[in-house]
Amino acid sequence: MKKLIILCSILVLSRMALAQSATYAIVPKPNKLDEKAGVFTLPNTVQISVDNAAIRPIADMLAGQLAKATGRTPSVTTGKTSKAAIRFEAARGETLGEEGYALRVTPKQIVITAEQPNGFFYGLQSLLQLMPVEVFSPAAVRNVVWSVPCCTIEDQPRYAYRGLHLDVGRHFFPVSFVKKYIDLIALHKQNVFHWHLTEDQGWRIEIRKYPKLTQIGSQRKQSMVGRYGENRYDGTPYGGFYTQDEVREVVRYAQERFVTVIPEIELPGHSMAILAGYPELGSNPDKLVPVATKWGVFEDVLFPREETFTFLQDVLTEVMDLFPSQYIHIGGDECPKTQWKQSRFCQDLMKREGLKDEHELQSYFIRRIDKFITSKGRKMIGWDEILEGGLSPNATVMSWRGTEGGIAAARQGHDAIMTPGGFCYLDHYQADPKTQPIAIGGFTTLEKTYGYEPTPDSLNAEEAKHIIGVQGNVWTEYMLTPEYVEYMVWPRAIALAEVGWTQKDRKNVADFKRRLALHQKRLDFLNVNYFGAPVNTRFQYQMPTQTASKQ
After folding, report:
1. Is 201 helix (H, G, I), strand (E, B) or coil?
2. Within 10 Å of residue 314's Cβ, how many Cβ atoms?
3. Which Gene3D superfamilies does the protein's record reference (predicted)?
4. Helices 56-70 & 117-130, crossing angle to 10 degrees?
5. Which of 110, 330, 416, 422 sits most deeply, having the most CB atoms within 10 A of its CB?
6. Active site (annotated) includes residue 334
């Protein structure tokens, strides 16, 4: 009898979880959600009120989306009114945190409270996800019951840094797609767009003091096609860059959605696009260095001369004028040391500065840049190679070669962002390689990504505070089009969004998949070409060769 009671209890709990997943299909999952009886039904005339003008733009976003989807335009008023169907109210007596919010839905009214505007914005995202999926339609939809299930939500993120990266150096993507990418970042309550703007294969940002960066560095003669190692090329010139006006437009667009844009300017490696226009910054001013047409790592790197530091400070000054973000990413990864080892200048510099090897020379290089960025009131982020030879005083480490870099940084008292390739690289295969377009390698399923735990158990409580967040990385060697990027990124980036937002004990992969099944219908309305979409062959891609299955 006792076993039967236990079995019945399990079945009841399972059905309750399934019901909540279907009715309350919010991603990322709120950290506290209490179901209530009943529903709120939107009246024919919807009135929205806000406490103060500072949060009016967020209410206007809701009104605009409801107008498109329902065909009825809500009114938005500033000032307290009990008549409003949907109210945005400043938190009183609640400790919700900078990004936290409370959402209360009763049969008569919806109230979102928060301490800061970004909290209201995240409350809005949850409210939209409680509505019928048609609310994401770009045009009015008929025969929909516009109702919201009653509930109480109190929610705030687990990590302060919740990022998604995009490499535009290998393949360039238009501003319209970058904005759509930011929209999707914001929808999933992520708050950082890491814009990888420079590479061996292309420099993508206008720097007015150094016009050759875009005149020469943004263009390559051709691109690799097929799998790496086949040495096949398309013979077609390729290029593109963002003007400073376009960059400002993107930054402003992201700010309106509470997304910080962090620029990455690669140094001292991955710099062939710089050297193509300014060879005097490399090993030999007379050496012709082309913009790379092949993927991979190259021996040509920046040299630690004073002229190079002047150049980089000038570039970073213009970059910091465009990007108000606290952080500036300087790369620092995969820098070959061969040319430095062979250089009399570098060897003399090492002796003069008391550097025992080329790793310490790279640390010297990075410390110079760190000091400059810090002098401008900003903070530097670098890939975990910046640990080699000694970490710069104010650096934040982005740990990509596993978790060791993040652990080492945290133990040294430095902040770290976790983005290990085995879990967070969204350019890896997500299904059987024989059935997929060519990817860079690896095999990272949705379930594996969702199961990632950013804070290692090996850290003590004080050290663990330095793990400030998690990020998904998107390297685009094989992603030729925006649709191709979407196919690789979504829905794995949604899994990472939940990793970054939801408390560890609230996560459950089966529950996530149930909520995701409904959420994908929202992505359909948003025209996202996610993996598993009803039509996911709308993009240009390269199918694997016979060797693909050996990966």
Report:
1. coil
2. 14
3. Chitobiase/beta-hexosaminidase domain 2-like, Glycosidases
4. 20
5. 416
6. yes
Reported as a single tens digit per residue, the pLDDT across 4-55 is 444 444 444 444 443 444 689 999 999 999 999 999 999 999 999 999 999 9
Domains of the chain: 24-155 (3.30.379.10), 161-507+517-526 (3.20.20.80)
Cα separation, 40 vs 149, in Å, equals 6
| Euclidean distance between CA atoms 343 and 338, whole angstroms | 9
Nearest to 173 by CA among 233, 234, 246: 246
DSSP string, 115-168: SSHHHHHHHHHHHHHHS-GGGG-SS--SS---EEEEEEEEE--S-SEEEEEEE-
- The string of DSSP codes covering 290-328 is PPP-S-S--S------HHHHHHHHHHHHHHHHH---SEE
Place of tokens 């594996």: 448
**Count of helices and strands (H, E) across the chain:** 18, 21
Q: What is the pLDDT of residues 73-115, one digit of tens each?
A: 999 999 877 788 999 999 987 789 999 999 999 999 999 999 9
- The one-letter amino acid code at 313 reads Q
Q: Which of 280, 299, 334, 360 is catalytic?
A: 334
pLDDT digits 0-9 by tens, 373-388: 999 999 999 999 999 9
